[in-house]
Amino acid sequence: MRITFCRQRYFREPRVATSFIRKLTLTLLLTGTALPASADGLSGSYLAARQATYASDYETAARYYTRALARDPSNPLLLESAVLAYLSTGNLETALPVARKIVNDGLESQLAEMVVAAGWVKQGDYATLLDALANDDGIGHLVDGLITAWAHMGAGDMTQALEAFDSVAKEPGFSGFAAYHKALALASVGDYEGAEAIYANQENGAIQNTRRGIMALLEILSQLDRNEDAVAMMDEMFQGDLDPDLENARTRLAAGERLPFTHVRGATDGVAEVFFTLARALENEAAPDYVLLYSRIAQYLRPDHFEALLLSAGLLEQLGQYDLSTKAYKQVPQDHPSYHAAELGRAEALRRADKPEAAIEVLEQLARSHGDLSIVHSSLGDMLRQQRDFAGAVVAYNRALDLSSEKDRSRWFLYYARGIGHERMGDWGKSEADFRTALELNPEQPQVLNYLGYSLVEKQIKLDEALNMIERAVAAQPDSGYIVDSLGWVLYRLGRYDEAVDHMERAAELMPIDPVVNDHLGDVYWAVGRTLEAEFQWKRALSFVDEETAEEAKPDRIRRKLEVGLDVVLEEEGSDPLKVANDG
What average pLDDT score do residues 127-155 get? Predict the structure, then answer.
């Protein structure tokens, strides 16, 4: 049997718009594994399943592929597609017999072989796994080599395991992965000195670049009675920015408690860590549906691997599968240190599923159970602000600021967000103070510069300072339509209409269907005497107004401008008239 877990071409594959699943399905179709058109009811199930797969609706896809397989149980396309759907939903027990049939039928399928291998690991059948790996001429690549090493450990041969890790380390670019897993393997059998020596080797510094790698080292140091070194390392690495899990570890270390080594408890955990390691490595390079395959296998092999669970949930959220995502987040128990992270993720998935009330309820409950965490209150504030409950948002941001550390580099955002709440509630004094405090903490932050500068423009005060702020914001983010719009608008307010035109046109290019931007461009055109173009832009602006943008876009005012022109509207509002501009 040919095992090809993860060839180098996949590991280095850049992120592309077309998903792995779509490419896989297309490949199968091109290789002649099409469905027989005559099968009664088969085509309908297949087409429904394929459409669901394209939409990443894995539960629906799994249901229809199951129906199709009942009618044509040996069709290669159906078999592999079904494995994909089952694995993506996290149902590996259902995927296993289908994957075994693919392998037994002599069909080449990387996906099926991954699932079958995971089944052997779960059963502790390392001898069969090693036999399969020995027959593969591709051993030496990352996942193959790492799983071979852990399989030797599972079979009781530590010497062969260490040699296999060293073999992986010889592959270009793989030394850090091999070192990390070798250190975990040594620690899992009590050789903490050997594990720490690998960490201490500066050539293996990359293994400390992940949170999980650091957590493993903390436990290793604690087992060596070096709690003080562990605490000092935490303080240096995290600068006091600790989540509940890290805070708990630091408290226990400072109290002299010896932390047990829990990151890898044996070969099964080790193979789970291989799939999780690769999922993390692929996260920013491959399509999320492909990365999900690895994180799901890690979960299957180690159900208490909550980092893998959170990764799967986040990937499902990226894929728009919010129900599956929320189900995954809910699997984290309330007494686990990652519970707050899971609930924050669940709230965001609910929000993206257009269930804001449910999301707010999750965050409010979390504020009661984990009320000592600043991020819980800031997340609640963000959610309430998005729902235009500015008073509630300000209360949440107040609490978040009270709980945040003075060293917290994100405090600027809390002041910025609270400033928006105050501004929307009409309290400009508090709003301006918050914006300026945010700028003291992060002087060149373009969003703050733009919001404060634009607010000053709208109030027609401190226009020179507003121009300076917005110019700095544009320099930092020249392709932000909102910020470029602000620059054009402040120039308009200053009576520099000719200069405003280019910036407003650029903003309209960047945000062609934004009603406010089109309305502003219309005003600028009117100011330079291009009245027909102004009316055209105002009509465009009206066509883009919806419930979400109506308050800021002011459609009634736009209609009035179309009736009588901007000059009359300004006069009716008691505003200063436009200056005479030369349109060239």
Answer: 82
